[in-house]
Amino acid sequence: MRDFYLLPKDGQFYKANLHCHTVLSDGSLTPEQIKEEYCKRGYSIVAFTDHDHYAWHRELDDEGFLALAAYETEIEQYPAREADWPTLKVYHLNLYDRHPEKRSQEAAPKLPQRRYEDLDYINGYIRSMREEGFLVCYNHAYWSMQTHQDYSGLRGLWAMEIYNNGCERDGLYGYTPQVYDEMLRSGQRLYTVATDDNHNHEPFDSLLCDSFGGFVMIKAKSLTYKEVMGALERGEFYFSCGPQIQEAYIHGNKLRVKTSPVEKIYVIQEGRNCYKKVAAPGETITEAEFTLTGHEGYIRIDIRDPKGFHAGTNSFWMDDILAANLAEG
Ligand SMILES: [Zn+2]
Ligand SMILES: [Zn+2]
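^ thats the input. predicted complex w/ zinc ion below
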């Protein structure tokens, strides 16, 4: 059996914020200011996801920065009255354009109708946007007041947000791994991302600042739209709020992981069993090896550093891993 890579062997990691609002919707910063502040902090990629406002800020691109064309749209539960807002359920979806060069940049973005209770309609919208050339991400379930009943029947999604930094600042409900596992256990095969969802209404040095808290590390051959979008499509990235995952691959029946210094390296599965390696009190670890049985259903790595920050891989299904190995001979 050949080695199976949860993160590609070749390429370079690029730090990306995949959820960002600017003055084009309800954010406080211009796209130029976003680029400047994120580049200062080691980011190479920002997806601009203004509310119902599609934009491709290609004028920002240079050898060290790539802007992804995107927007965020929503389907609200019922016609909102001001008094209903705190408990209003809503689907928020990010749409990432795979081929902005093929799209008329002046055309209005396709927005969904407000048919919250109509799951077939919502899945049809997701399907049609995929066919239009977009990757569709399901955002911040916790903030959206949504439960298993609202998201277990979704189909055709590219990813969901396991961490949303704006929600963390808003109500300490940023990290929602249970939502990801519930979606996987309901039969969806999708990736997971950490994002900022920044609006920048607070200064950068405030603990209420919503920037620089959730990101993805994308492993791509180069910083071009084609390579980066291809890596996103194939799931060649991991999410993080701080720690790094340098390597993750399966050799024979051994899963091997290398990380920045962390306290805990866990392998979450389809059932409640977990593989785990933890550091001695006050110490850290940077690698782990686990023996796989083939009966895990899916696996995903979740690590936690001494500050409590998580990072983790996408989920990988054992039948896919086996099929890939068989196909490769
Ligand atoms: Zn949203
Ligand atoms: Zn947003």
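The chain has a mean pLDDT of 96.
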